[in-house]
Amino acid sequence: MAVNQKIFAIVGNFGFHPGPKGLDVYAYDPATAAMEHVAAGFAEVNVGHQSIDAARKMVYLTNECPSQRGQTGGGGYLLAVKVGPESGKLNLVSEKPSLSAEPCFTCLDKSRHFILVSHHVDFGFVTKIVKHEQGYAATTVFDDTALVLFRINPDGSLGEACDLALTPGEGSSGPHTISRHHSVQADPSGELFVVCDKGLDRFHTYRLDREHGKLVRLQDTAVETGLVPRYGVFHPSLRIFYANFERKTVVHAYRYDVATGSLDPVCSVPLLPGETAFDGQKKVESADILIHPNGRYLYVSIRGANTIALLDVDDGGSISLRESVDCGGVNPRGLAISPDGRFLFAGNIDSGNIATFAIGADGSLVATGSGVQGGCPGSIRFLAV
Q1: What integer is the mean pLDDT of 104-119?
Q2: Class of domain 7-384
Q3: Contact at 8 Å (CB) between 51 and 106?
Q4: Vertex 125, ends 185 and 379: CA angle to 5°?
């Protein structure tokens, strides 16, 4: 760490269910992994996800809500927030309607001139009556699901939405016919973007035409119906993409092509016996997925089981489950690895705590017994200033 450099842990509270919302800022000690609370803000914002622009000391976050203020419906918001380099104090720079319901994930482009926002939406609908030549009929309209591209101004404030990619659902016959974008990730080159669509059970791939500010659709890759893709992560040096799912506790590995956007299966590994996401009446499902910066270890949080799975990654990118450890709380949603790769943090929403683990030389996790209590920690990001 550079002399006089500070590191802040920025914690987004996901209070979609009754519980605290907003952002918390902690001063982070890289030597001990201790966190001291120094600032808070935006208590009314249900933080879905954050992207960090360290150079501008900016945090871009979503307010994951279905309705604009003062009305029913209309979607959520994207916020640009400045972090005070000395105090960690949070100041709103700009805010834009995200244009679709429940914006849940952000992806800052490598150019820092654009940011992509995915939307979770839900199963709300409107019944419309239409007249045909044969008479009247009822039709059902669902929310538009969109990947929205926003410009970012030189000062870090948000510009206007310049493009979007709609993925309409395929009907109203069941729960997996409505598109629901749960996340969007960029590969290490920054040229390929993968969207996990938990409604249509598929991945969408895009590239970004930066000259014209346009999203370019590449390919769709379908998975088994009912898997419900949630999050993904790219290997730091191999062209491998890993994805987890909400309705089956497995991780899939895909070999990807940046130019075409193709995803070709490599392997699939179960995280629990039976690969099931349901144990009787108890719902057990994957939440977050991370890869260590050295590319040798993969971590997946599992809600219901309240565990963190550790998978080994071989030289070719294939994975194997080694063990699971207690997450140090209840309902682990977000995971984060410290900038130096020495510690892992688990944000446990229901118990309202962040548990801290030391990462061994072999990738193993050892609970430190420390951490912080408070809020509904759903996403954790680090900002060095």
Answers
A1: 98
A2: mainly beta
A3: yes
A4: 30
pLDDT band at 15 (very low <50, low <70, confident <90, very high): confident
- Collapsing DSSP to helix, strand or coil, 217 comes out as strand
Task: Report pLDDT for 273.
Answer: 72
Nearest to 165 by CA among 123, 128, 117, 200: 117
41-96: pLDDT as tens digits = 999 999 999 999 999 999 999 999 999 999 999 999 999 999 999 999 999 999 99
For residue 115, what are its two tokens?
A: 């940011």
**Alpha carbon distance 170, 140 (integer Å):** 12
**Separation between Cα atoms, residue 273 and residue 98, nearest integer Å:** 40
Compute the distance between CA of residue 197 and CA of residue 176 in angstroms, rounded to an integer: 10
Residue in 138, 122, 141 with CA at minimum distance from that of residue 130: 138
Map out the domains of the chain as residue ranges.
Answer: 7-384
Contact 302, 332 (CB under 8 A): yes
Q: Rounded to an integer, what distance in angstroms lies between the CA atom of residue 81 and that of residue 57?
A: 9
Number of CB atoms found within 10 A of residue 145's CB: 25
pLDDT of 231 strictly over 60: yes
| Residue 274 pLDDT | 59
- CA-to-CA distance for 64 and 75, rounded, in angstroms? 8
Is residue 368 scored above 90 in pLDDT?
yes
Of the candidates 309, 343, 347, the one whose C-alpha atom is nearest the C-alpha of residue 326 is 309
Query: Which residues 6+ apart lie within 8 Å of 300 measured at CB?
Result: 244, 251, 271, 286, 287, 288, 289, 290, 308, 309, 311
- CA 144 vs CA 47, 97, 169: distances in Å: 21, 14, 8
Asked if the model's pLDDT at residue 142 lies above 90, the reply is no
Residue predicted with more confidence, 169 or 123 = 123
